[in-house]
Amino acid sequence: MRLNNKIQTILLGSFALLCMLQSYGQQDPQYTQYMYNHSMINPAYAGSQDGLNIFGLYRAQWVGLEGAPKTATLSINTPLSQSGLGLGVNFTNDNLGVMDENTLSVDLSYAIDLNYQYKLAFGLKGSANILDVNYSKLSIYNPTDPVVVEDIKNKFTPNIGAGLFLYADRAYAGVSVPNLFTRYRYNDDAVKTMNQELHVYLTGGYVFDVNPNLQFKPATLIKIEQGSPMQVDLSANFLFAEKLTVGAAYRWDASISGLIGFQLSKQIFIGYSYDAETTKLANYQNGSHEIFMQFKLFNVFKRVTPPRFF
Question: One Pfam family this chain carries (predicted)?
């Protein structure tokens, strides 16, 4: 009887994890305001700004749903010299139910001039991932049953990634694979292993001048993952008098979002977004919140300075 209960608990826990990850729609963290900091997904973005760029973000997804994803990210990147080299450091904490994952990555990029307007950057990413899984957080039908499921603690996994980033003062396009190697997210004798599949990201955007005090930038992010439907994000932002940003976004067959941002000074920009689910999941949660702060120290080196949108 105890053996059956143990098997039932393990299967139930495994099913809960798989359902959460499946409904999560991806195994990499998800961002709505990706257009403000591409270094989270593309190492070639490092150094593309005209100086030191510090970006901090916190995302609470599916608020009100127990065990829903929570993500905190800190990114720092800067050009190293006028030779076109760029360096970035990123830290991400991703919490999902019983899983807590910390990732530290270093980006190195090199940009070349294609013409007087466009630059093309090549980037490499090296990352270290530490995973903890606490199965004691799982709900079971019979809590008095002496079930022992071994936790996963400090599971270390290295990885590498690569990307390209084409940019000018009014346009950008990128392609990246943050993690080139498939890895096991769970590797415990009692639970089936599950691979983290390769993700390919495609990004693009353009800035239009509507009038001297109004700019408009549509942007898109496309994520391709083996074994999952392609995810398409579409966004449109308006910048008023270089102070206030207002926009909307749509994640195909998943959610709609409202975005707002304030340019507090030449160096500091803050932003907020709210996602409303368009799926059946909307009945079980209260939306997703995302907030960030960006600090830029310009004019360290004379390079192409993209608009503040990206």
Answer: PorP_SprF
Copy the structure tokens of residue 157.
């996994």
Sole residue written with tokens 């990004």 = 203
Q: Tens of pLDDT along 109-130?
A: 999 999 988 999 999 999 999 9
The CA distance from 23 to 69, in Å, is: 11
**Taking the CB of residue 16, how many other CB atoms lie within 10 A of it?**
16
* Structural domains of the chain, ranges and CATH numbers in brackets: 29-134+149-182+193-299 (2.40.160.40)
Closest by CA position to 52, among listed 83, 85, 81, 76: 76
CB of 27 within 8 A of CB of 179? no
- Average pLDDT of span 27-56: 90
d(CA 153, CA 226) in angstroms, rounded, equals 27
E strand intervals along the chain: 51-60, 70-79, 85-96, 99-113, 119-133, 152-167, 171-177, 183-188, 191-196, 199-206, 208-211, 214-225, 231-240, 244-251, 255-263, 268-277, 288-298
CA distances from 260 to 32, 89, 288, 294 (A): 12, 26, 14, 14
What would the pLDDT profile of 142-175 be if each residue is shown by its tens digit? 555 555 567 788 889 999 999 999 999 899 999 9
